[in-house]
Please model this.
Amino acid sequence: MTNLALSVLTTHPTPKHLEYGVTRSPYGMALWGFTHAGLCHLSLHDQCADPVTRLQQHWPGYTCQLHQTQADALSRQATTPGTQPIIAWVTGTALQTQVWQTLLQLQPGELISYQQLAARAGHPTAVRAVGTAVGKNPIAWLIPCHRVIRKNGETGQYHWGTARKKQMIQTERSHIKQNQI
Model:
């Protein structure tokens, strides 16, 4: 399970102000966006030039201010076993938030097809909508959309690159094997 406590907000917090920072993650450079309500954005990049523009593409109307110390703390919290869950907030449709909550229930290394995810999320006939929700995940890797694969077992696409998705799955599975020895 992921070290994340997810809250669903129906309205955006005010004032519309994001703080951000860029850190190294196990999967590339990570752009963290957060407010007083918690983490609301996490994206992965090979390089993260111009993070304010990237955030404002996802959060139009928000002002952005660098707060690297908090981003570093969130990064440590996300990658250190046994720490308190990160508080995060998301906005989305009821189906999207249900899909993201369902993804948080997956164990590290556990893979699931889009069809299985749709069924677990309570929407067994909405496979395409579930796929769209996976693609709109605002919090990379902590809401583990990389664990969703095609029903034929192929890795499938990933917003931050198929090679990165394969690396994430391999990394999780190797940690599981190491802990079983």
